[in-house]
Amino acid sequence: MSVVKINAITVPKDKQERFEERFRGRAGAVESTPGFEWFELLRPLEGTDQYLVYTRWSSQEAYEAWQSSQDFDRAHDGGGDTLASAAPHSAHVWTYEVLEYAGPKANQEKQV
């Protein structure tokens, strides 16, 4: 079964735009990493100032290989001075195993 990594990052309101800019400028190397299945950046709408970075992997080993790669280091270097981290030292990583999942049911009837 797949493994999900959720990085919960607290970002103060005045730094949220910079934080999102940093993600828009990401290199995207994770998408071609063996074992990578999914990525989502979730913006809080109410009740919290924590963003969630959701990634899904085919195995814990696939995630660990990504985490120890040079691409991971480049993706997490803060973007240099122009895109410095908006929320240093405010992240927590949660790990879950996917037990069940579902997607939309395919439409069995032809549309005319």
Automatic annotation (TrEMBL):
ABM domain location, by residue? 3-93
Under the heading InterPro entries, the entry gives:
ABM_dom, Dimeric_a/b-barrel, Heme-degrading_MO
- SUPFAM superfamilies, alphabetized: Dimeric alpha+beta barrel
| Designated name of the protein | ABM domain-containing protein
Q: Which organism is it from?
A: Blastococcus saxobsidens (strain DD2)
